[in-house]
Design goal:
Layout: H1 5-32, H2 44-77, H3 95-100, H4 108-111
Helix pairs in contact: 1-2
Length: about 110
């Protein structure tokens, strides 16, 4: 069954909120991913911790960037016919699942396979 206009409106609102939150997180992560300056006056152990933290934040930044791109693409295809159909089995994706993960393209059953 296709999504109703109200359901699409609700999903659009959820996606917009998720995009906004993701953009805020990306701004914060940019700060944490700045290079560790070799001339900063921290000890050797602290420098190693800073480098490790930077690597972790780099990975987090890339994951958030991917999520942001998925959300933008989802917003673009929200009005497409079959938006709420699983791209593996063709069955409708539960609205509750779309509310939690609007970018998903598979139903619960197929995502577990």
């Amino acid at each position: 069954m296709a999504l109703t206009t109200e359901q699409k409106k609700e999903l659009r609102s959820i996606i917009d909120k998720m995009i906004s939150e993701t953009e805020e997180e990306l701004v914060q992560l940019v700060e944490y991913t700045r290079p560790v300056s070799p001339d900063s006056s921290i000890g050797r152990i602290s420098r190693m911790d800073a480098i490790n933290n930077k690597a972790i934040n780099d990975a987090a930044f890339l994951e958030k960037k991917k999520l942001h791109q998925k959300l933008e693409k989802t917003l673009d295809r929200l009005d497409d016919a079959g938006f709420d159909n699983c791209n593996k089995c063709g069955e409708p994706i539960a609205f509750g699942r779309l509310q939690i993960m609007p970018y998903t393209r598979r139903c619960v059953r197929c995502s577990g396979r």
